[in-house]
Amino acid sequence: MPISRSLLMRSILPAFTACLLAACAATPAWPDAAESAALDEARSQAELTAYLSDSLWDWAELGYQEEKSSTLLQETLADAGFTVTPGVADIPTAFVAEYGSGGPVIALLAEMDALPGINQSALPTRKGVNGKLAGHACGHNLFGAGSVSAAIAIRNWLEESGTPGRIRVYGTPAEEGGSGKVYMVRAGLFEDVDIAIHWHPGDRNSAAANTTLANRSAKFRFSGISAHAAGAPEQGRSALDGVEAMNMMANMMHEHIPQDARMHYVITSGGSAPNVVPDFAEVFYYVRHPSPDGVEAIWSRLENAARGAAQGTGTEVEWEVIHGNNPLLVNETLALLMDEKLRIVGGVEYTEAELEFAETISTTLANQSLPLSSASEVQPFEVSLGYGSTDVGDVSYAVPTVGLRTATWVPGTPAHSWQAVAASGTSIGHKGTQVAAETITLAAVELFTNEDLRKKARTEFDEARGPDYEYKSLLGDRDPPLDYRK
């Protein structure tokens, strides 16, 4: 099983202080000839980065429905000379694209899905777009675009330098609650990969080694008996009562779960009219904890709450597990490499127009602790626990994995907000994405040419997993939930 948070911290904290001081004090190294050539290639892709990210932003397609977004990314890679395999892992919008031969395999992850129920124009004030039901509030339009443009830059460098190796792009749908990468891991698509690289939009530039929470979700569906709510209430059994009873018990559970755990829900269906006792209701739950075992323990209690709610309200309940992710297994060797390359590239410099946008949007943010100038800075290196979850976690237990965040949003912007949607559709988002693409390109050059570094990362990875590690998916053996957003 994946290592626990306490074991993780015991294994990495002894080196933490020294690494933090070294990273903070170090002067960024000047790129060598190979890195300079690759960096030029990455910078030459800036126009493509903007085009791809804006296209995905406009479409804002939900998980497993990213037909146009996936097609555009595949076509772009095919035009650049990649061999593209679409529809992998029984997911129509998932793909693998590869260029090169021999040498190590370096994989770049490319997300593309938007979030439902959030809609915003590319303006610094709250204004939706008529008829648009989703938005890139987590910036996956930028994620997919930056990874693809970086892959093309790396591909060009491989060809021009004659370096042996393969650069591979994984088009990974439905990160937002669909666990697309888990099915790709389960299908064995990462078995020959040496290193996997990911990145994520954010409100700051950082290559910190942050782990995440394991999580699982399910839709709990209650069935009752419909009746006239006034004329024959005694004949009805409200499915909504079942949902509300379950929610009440779950809310009381919050007092009695570990401090680092998280549990949240939305009622996705509660009936259609007050004077009709609803015979169907549904509630969608997430459970998170630093360890998979912790998720399992809380989950069994949540299932019991569902059973008790059904029994107490005279209804029936069943549930469908929608997704499940393992926590992110950090690799400090690779994280320090990424931090070094990020410091070479630097942060985001605003134009006067961008600064005006940032100042306006900043007035709408609850967290104004980060100055706008921090977008141009790289945050200190650290090792810590994050409270989000991602299906990159499952990839990180299949292959040594490293990532970074860049300032694609105005400092202080939370993910899953209208402010994140707005900035993700502007030049601020483009610039942050370009920082990521350039940093990834430099890291890839180092990884292709430094065998000792790859071996060191692999040794750390093997030791962290342990000799008896066996992969276990938190979503079980279910097929991809291709209709979970419909």
Automatic annotation (TrEMBL):
Residues 217-308 form the Peptidase M20 dimerisation domain. Keywords: Hydrolase, Signal. One of its GO terms (molecular function) is para-aminobenzoyl-glutamate hydrolase activity. Residues 1-25 form the signal peptide. One of its GO terms (cellular component) is cytoplasm. One of its GO terms (biological process) is folic acid catabolic process. This is Peptidase M20 dimerisation domain-containing protein.
